[in-house]
Write a structure and sequence with these properties.
elongated; alpha+beta; 4 domains; four-stranded antiparallel sheet
Length: about 450
């Protein structure tokens, strides 16, 4: 009997302890707060991930006491933008388009803080700001960050905005003069060409020859850094290309996303109603002028490029009429234009021919990162090549012999392949990007 009472007492003590702990937990951490906190953290994490994937733009929020007393600045209500010239604006809702006009007008005037025409969620405001920066490379003094103000009790809704600018704001008149002069020089050369495709190629070649890639370049997210400073990164290359072509009447849009896992920007260009992908940055890195990423399809780019956010909603690149595929006279001989991306002169009919072409390309180009293309007879051969790649047949097929021909005792090798099927002929254009390094096991 005593043993039974002891067990009951022990059980009762446990129940009482659990009840007390639950009461204390409820008092200090109410259920709705715990759930709300978890939800808020998830929403915050999603926003952070979204910003990292949304044209490299960052934002910071501050609490505002009374936004009603703030000025709207220039509302931009008299501005007019066509959907063809400003494709990102066309993707926005009506209220977002109103704020888009307002941001553009205030950025043009270098205004600081202003009350938004209508409250927007943080996601809506970020999309709107990104749309302005993607549509208007000419506002090169606008920074890739901003501050938003939220009212008490609602941190997820923006009612106010503060624009930030680069150091060029302090000498804007002189900076604009330098920008316009550099652009005019390039435009005058391009206007000597008659066809839109020739103008595009002239601009591509000129920028490749006059601009160098530099992570540390001043204002490197802008068209100004490429046109005036001749030193930039992917965003600068792409915005300069976009600005000049649009001035020439050739539709060119700014595309952002990832390439080989990192943030990247490139363009799409419309010629005779067809869209083409152009990655001036990567082509220039291969030694210019190089046409590996000039007037290619999304399918070819998808080997290593992925669009992000709103860029996914812009036209797909599938044009073929002006596709540029450098073809050397002899396999293994670099493109006479100076590029390293060569394609086979004839259709590749077998795995052995593929291996021979890869051997020739690696021996011709050596250590480094480069791409080349070739026309395969059909999709079946493409599948065979991919299957061989998974088995690492390429080592005995061409890599070991190519490394020996280059005198490499130790080396590292990475590569990606992608294919673009021609529905009419049944042929597949295989694009292969390789990285060959010396001194690794």
């Amino acid at each position: 009997m005593f043993s039974v009472m002891k067990k009951l007492y022990h059980i009762f003590s446990i129940i009482l302890a659990v009840t007390i702990l639950a009461g204390v937990g409820w008092y200090f951490f109410p259920t709705d707060q715990v759930v709300s906190g978890a939800r808020s953290f998830k929403e915050y994490a999603d926003r952070v991930r979204g910003n990292l994937n949304n044209d490299n733009v960052s934002a910071e929020g501050v609490k505002v006491d009374d936004a009603a007393d703030d000025s709207y600045g220039d509302t931009g209500e008299t501005l007019s933008f066509s959907s063809s010239a400003c494709p990102y604006r066309a993707l926005l809702s009506v209220k977002e388009q109103g704020v888009y006009n307002q941001i553009y007008a205030n950025a043009r005037d270098c205004a600081g803080t202003f009350r938004l025409l209508c409250a927007l969620s943080l996601e809506e405001l970020n999309d709107t700001y990104v749309a302005v920066t993607c549509d208007h490379p000419e506002i090169f003094w606008l920074a890739n960050r901003y501050e938003y103000g939220y009212a008490a009790g609602d941190k997820d809704t923006a009612v106010q905005m503060t624009l930030e600018y680069s150091a060029l704001k302090d000498e804007l008149r002189q900076a604009k003069a330098r920008f316009d002069a550099a652009a005019a020089e390039l435009l005058n050369g391009a206007r000597a060409c008659t066809a839109a495709a020739d103008k595009e190629k002239y601009v591509f070649d000129t920028l490749a020859q006059t601009v160098e890639y530099n992570d540390n370049a001043a204002c490197n997210q802008t068209a100004y850094s490429a046109l005036v400073g001749h030193s930039t990164v992917c965003a600068g290359y792409s915005r300069a290309f976009q600005y000049i072509l649009n001035q020439l009447g050739v539709p060119c849009y700014y595309i952002f996303g990832t390439a080989d896992g990192g943030y990247h920007a490139w363009n799409i260009v419309q010629l005779d109603g067809e869209w083409y992908g152009v990655d001036l940055t990567w082509s220039d890195q291969l030694g210019g002028p190089n046409y590996t990423y000039f007037n290619v399809t999304d399918s070819a780019l998808s080997v290593n490029h992925t669009r992000s956010a709103m860029s996914r909603k812009l036209p797909g690149a599938g044009g073929t009429k002006y596709a540029c595929t450098p073809v050397p006279a002899t396999p293994g001989v670099p493109d006479p234009s100076g590029g390293t991306a060569a394609a086979a002169a004839d259709t590749v009919d077998s795995l052995d021919e593929y291996n021979t072409l890869c051997y020739n390309q690696i021996v011709a180009n050596g250590v480094g990162t480069y791409s080349f293309s070739m026309a395969l007879k059909d999709e079946e051969l493409y599948d065979q090549i991919r299957a061989a790649a998974k088995r690492k047949d390429y080592e005995a097929g061409y890599l070991d012999a190519a490394a020996a021909a280059l005198g490499l005792d130790k080396f590292g090798y990475e590569y990606k392949i992608g294919g673009d099927l021609d529905d009419t002929t049944g042929q597949v254009t295989l694009t292969q990007r390789v990285t060959l390094t010396e001194g690794q096991n």
